[in-house]
Amino acid sequence: MSDASGSRGLLKWIDERYQISPLLEFVRHKEVPLGAHPILWYYVGGTTLFFFAVQILSGLLLLVYYQPGETTSYESIRYLTTKVPFGWLVRSVHCWSAHLMIISLVTHMLSTMLLKAYRPPRELTWVTGFALFALALGFGFSGYLLPWNELAFFATAVGTDSVKSVPLLGDWLLNVLRGGPDVTINTLYRFFALHICVLPIAAFGIIGVHLLFVQRQGMALPVGESEAPRGMRFFPNFALRDLLLWLICLIALSALALFFPYGAGIPGFEWELGQKADPLAPAFPGIKPEWYFLWIYQLLKEFPPHLLGIEGPQLCLVVVNVLVAIWALVPWLDRSARAEKPSAGFTDLGVSAILFLAFLTLKAWDIGGGGGADGQLPDPAAVARNSAWILAALTVAITLVRVSFFHHRWFILSGAALLHAVLHGIGGVQYLAAGAIAATLAAVAIGFLSIRARRLPPFAGGNP
Amino acid sequence: MAESRTSSPATRRSVLNLLLTMGGLGWLASVLYPVISYLRPLPMQGPSGPVGLTRAEIGKIERDKFAIIPVGTRRVLVFEDSSGELHALDAKCTHEGCTVRYVSGESLIWCACHNGRFDLEGHVLGGPPPRPLARHAVQRQADGGIMVAVSKA
Amino acid sequence: MRHLGVFLLLAPLALAIGATSSRAEEEFTPSEELTALLLAPGDDGEPLISRREREYFSELPPRAKELFDQAIENELLSEATHLREILSLGLSAPKVELLMRDNCIVCHTDPTAQDSDTLFSTDPESNGSPSHLDLVEFVSDVHFRRGLSCAGCHGGDPMDEDMADEIYDRWPEAPERHEDRTWIPAFCARCHADPVFIRRFNPALPTDQYAKYKESRHGERLFRAGDSKAAQCVSCHTAHGILRPNSPRSSVHPRRVPYTCGRCHADEEYMAGYVGSDGKPLPTDQLREFETSVHGRALLDRGDLGAPACNDCHGNHAAMPPEISSIAQVCRTCHAANGELFDGSRHKQAFERHRWPECETCHGNHAIAETDDSMLSEQSSPLCYECHREYAEDNPKCVETAKYFHASITSLARESEWLDGRIQPLAQRGLDVDALTATVGELRDILRQSRSLIHAFDRGEFEPVETRGREQVETGRALVAEAEAEYRFRRNGLLVAVGIMAFLAVVIFLKIREIESDT
Fold first, then answer.
1. Cβ separation of B42 and A83 shorter than 8 Å?
2. Other CB atoms closer than 10 Å to residue A396's CB: what's the count?
3. What is the second-level CATH architecture of the domain A17-264+307-320?
4. Contacts of C518 in chain B (CB under 8 A)
5. Cα gap A94→A100, rounded to integer Å
């Protein structure tokens, strides 16, 4: 804090009126625990916030020139990126920062998952964080449509189509979301309202609550520990480090925005403006949603039209909701962590989630499928095989790290994820069938272990 | 960083603080420069030569004795006086920028906002306007069309 | 009262019974023989007529089914194989009725009643029948579909159960009618040269084919030289598979015309002995050349019906090789602009004086290749230069003009390519390429215009277009330079910004160290 007497005078002036000295004391003494968790993980929440702030600023700037409308959405962005000075930069920064924010958010979420920061008293921090994750996906989905180009139009048509599967409300939801039965400019108007007003207000509110919780409760410690060996003062030590990292992120963002103005060139990670949306044109082959939606897009493709007497998409929706519910309720499901005991199973659950999502995303990228040339469709068997090999390599790498650095011993769920991929990609078993087999085997293995341990909950007894 | 001669902690600190402030201001400038360039409106491209009036505008002059036409970003008042001669003046009142009108019955230009009054050549007759209205060239064509050339002033 | 009640009760019942029974009268019950034929077993014990064909039969309207019974009654239909042939066609109900009402067809499709020379079948080759006895083709034939029936050409009465004498009288005897084909055009012309008759069926159909044919080379050979190898109506239109020219399967559809003509004209053996008007033997490589030409590839490979087939340049019924003076007229029907330019040029009188065939001289006739700028080059193509040196030695300016054309066009083309190649890399870098794309589009148009203007063979007409082209090239280059400068500006701006941020980052790092060195 500055020692200049002038500012102390200012602070005193404010304090006399608003009694902020308890707040200042809190800020002065706030500490970040050291020596327990690697400090690296404490930064990723901040970088997510930083990228979000960049989104707000760049979004505001875009709003000065963007005009939603049948004849103006695409044209205003074209004008913005070609004629307005630095307009290309603002748009490029906005698109890059969106993706970087989501990468940062997912890293943050996975780190809190694996380090079990969600256990009491921080359950609601996890839940609000999960809500923020959903909001971020909503931001991404609604913002994607706004340029009103071909890519966005079809991606939105495919994406909104899935809400039809919601029982009872499906059609009503579809109509409300799209502003009609089909994707039209009315859809854009609704998404625009969502993107610049509804979602930001919700985000500000929930971020506020999330940060409030974090401030009140401080940083989480590893399971079983109640105090850190040392602490680092937040102001100015950690704050300056945060600032430094944000500056480095900004440098990276600027460089990316200049050298790759249309994205990384990977499907689902590109935003060239392209052609204006034409509702009458057929969807072009190779259309994909953004990379963070690829897993659900691929999962939907794996379901047959009818299964177990239910429509495929509806069953997929059920499965996804179950998985998502498990994820959201992890603070309550993980009873070992609640009891401050090592929880190897849930660590493995986190890793298996990564593998599950990675496999679907790899498949969605049609790696090695040989498609695209002459409008040929990629060969699903080849794609599944390549994805399985890549996933196997990834799993081996992760497992090696886990075993050597973290001394993990519990691999049933991540093993099941690998088995799933191998059965499907290399064994040729249908995706859902392979999943059922892997899940059943995992359940049997867990049941066997728990009976052997003669104890419930079943996830006790392994090294974390 | 150049170390100061005394190299005491206090000097190092104040040097660092100075550098920090300079760096921070430099960073702010590097962000604000593009943002301000971005926000500055682009000059609107207007036609540089004489502009012809549309059929609708010519019709309006026949009916109401005057019409306000856009030329690039400017507004021009084209009116026909009692002897049938055409005039063209800037339509933007020199007081607060409201659009003036031609009152044919009284052969004067009148601004409704603050009761400014101008004669047919743009000179101020009364009211708050500080300067006369700029004059522009207007010409009737052989085929009945009307051309206006906006003066640069 | 009671009787009224009974009546009221019974009346609706009676009406219902009456209604159903009248429907029952409309229902068709096949005769025993027909049923037997439908279920007759083949060699393997299974019914010869497949399940699908039987289902198809059962869905035919009663009127059509009755015709089958009638045919059985008339003893024209008595074999399961015969019935199968007819059912396998899968015709629509009206067509089935048309076919079954015509006893000629019913009889002539019976494998037991006909020999291979007179049997219509779905696979004539396997029965050893000539190709014009193809039943599948025949049911699409335009004469059959309009209800003309066999009798219309061959005589007789379709209701007869036996061959009438008239048929033997009208039709020339085999094998004479195969050796001497001179009777065929007059035979078709009985109807097709009679406007009053034809307008009953198709008022828009021309009726001058016979008159034209008589004036054609084919007509000359057939009538005046008695040469039966010459093409007549049936050679191109076929006998029983006649389709309208706009039907893709028709032998006279534009995409098939080259091969129809080629059946004779590309056959060396067949054309041996024929000589052209210059006394040399008629070539047989026209089809091959045409297939490689621009016109051929457009018509045959891409299906572009705007491209000419043989008949568009040679005529069809009045087919003759175009005369020297008329070749250019033929090309001009499509290539009007270049034709006009040529007409106003010096070459027009020169070519007329030498009696050269205008367009064909430089572009060829059948093997018209895609035009290329190299046609103007002295090295690759002697077109202009050899000719001028031989016939116009007192005009060396012309050779210079040709060289100028070549240099100018190739240079513009090169610049245009270069500019076009810059668009993608610049766009990928996020730069604005709209104006450049428009300029390149302009240049393409200018190149097209200038290549066309060659046909005026005049420097004065060419120069303004070339000047415009140069201007566009300048504009394009300026735009590229501007875009590259913009990119450099952006990159340098990034370096400056990153420099400042890196400086700040270092300072912050030092500040952190400084703060922590206190404790």
1. yes
2. 11
3. Up-down Bundle (1.20)
4. 9
5. 10
B38 touches chain A (CB under 8 A): yes
CB contact at 8 A, A346 and A336: yes
A371: its two tokens: 């498609």
Chains with 3 or more CB pairs under 8 A to chain C:
A, B
ipTM for the predicted complex:
0.84
pLDDT category of residue B105 using cuts at 50, 70 and 90: confident
Location of each CATH 1.20.810.10 domain in chain A: 17-264+307-320
Q: How many CA atoms lie within 13 A of A357 on its CB side?
A: 14
CA C123 – CA C207 distance, rounded (Å): 34
Name the DSSP letter for residue C223: I
Rounded to a whole number of angstroms, the distance between the first and last alpha carbons of chain A is 41
The pair of three-digit structure tokens given for residue A290, joined into one six-digit string: 């953004």
Amino acid symbol at A301: K
DSSP reduced 3-state for B122: coil
Burial C292-313 (b: 16+ CB within 10 A, else e): ebebbeebbeeeeeebbbbbbb
In terms of C-beta distances under 8 Å and separation of at least 24 residues, what long-range contacts does A335-338 make, across chains too? A335/A457, A336/A457, A336/A459, A336/A460, A337/A116, A337/A118, A337/A119, A337/A223, A338/A119, A338/A120
Instruction: Name the residue with tokens 């074999």.
Output: C79
For C501, the closest chain B residue by CA position comes to B27
B13 touches chain C (CB under 8 A): yes
State the smallest CA–CA distance between residue B44 and chain A in angstroms.
12
The CA-atom distances, in angstroms, between A28 and each of A22, A233, A410 are: 10, 8, 42
Nearest to C500 among B1, B20, B30 (CB): B30
Q: What confidence tens digit (pLDDT) does each residue in A118-156 have?
A: 988 999 999 999 999 999 999 999 999 999 998 889 888
Which among A83, A85, A247 has CB closest to B37? A85
Bridge partners of residue B148, in order along the sequence = B51, B138
Q: Do the Cβ atoms of A317 and A220 come closer than 8 Å?
A: no
In 3D, which of A371, A399, A373 has the Cα closest to residue A386? A371
Q: Which residue has tokens 């493709």?
A: A301
Give the integer Cα–Cα distance in Å for C150 and C177.
18
pTM over 0.80: no
* CA end-to-end distance (rounded Å), chain C: 124
pLDDT tops 60 at residue C237? yes
